[in-house]
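hey so u asked for the seq, here:
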Amino acid sequence: MPWIQITLDATAEHAEYLEDRLLELGTCAVTLQDACDQPLYEPEIATTPLWSQTQVIGLFDAATDVDNVVEQLKESAANHFSACRIEIVEDKAWEREWMIHFHPMKFGQRLWICPSWKDVPDPNGVNLMLDPGLAFGTGTHPTTALCLEWLEGLELKNQRVIDYGCGSGILGIASLLLGASQFIGVDTDPQALEASTINAKRNQIHHDRFDVHYPNTTPAIKADVMVANILAAPLISLAQTLADLTRSGGQLALSGILEEQADEVSAAYSERFTMSPPVNKDGWVRIDGIRQ
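ran it, structure tokens below
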């Protein structure tokens, strides 16, 4: 069954009002999206910023009297949007549409991240089977790629790895497949802990080697390898916490950092770690260090 899509061009201050009006007029779903390629990298806590130019998109059943909907929008919200477009959207199996575009990815010399519905490209490589799901982290984002490449280049045999902000568990699973002996994942999101556990089982990781915790239940142990792919502000605030969880001589990797934020993040860790210059990828960086 096709759908009718109404797209309204608006400013950030009017987007919420238009969303409410579309819902009142019977839309099945409302989407807000960037209208002019304006990134929002790191919003302040407890805020949900919108783009200065925002598209408010309502999806309606094909049987909807769309002319009546548009007329009511013009009567009640004409000053809240600059343009209105109507189009027919063909029905698809949307839950499977994205699968077409997700392919195996290689990191370093031997590590592959593979979706479960694809054949592994290298049976002799280190193959991590991962389906995108509840939590962030599939390897497609530059920050995740930077961390995976770093882990692939380490000697991880008999090493204990902690990932602070573990998301999907991808970094922990990769470290264990690459030879680490134990992994501890930490996250504030229960869906992340659930996704990490599910992905570990999918990769036949025994639960004795893979453990996840909320920050307040993290065991007081020392990591040989500490990785945190979050955002600059929480990384700065976590400097002492991550230092306390890393043994002397232990290795550190921080990511989720924009190029212009690298110096500030590095400075927050320089009293406790010997920091290396940042490694850049598509405007994002990873900063490595050794615990003093």
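The mean pLDDT is 90. The domain at 99-291 is CATH 3.40.50.150 (Rossmann fold).
lmk if thats what u needed
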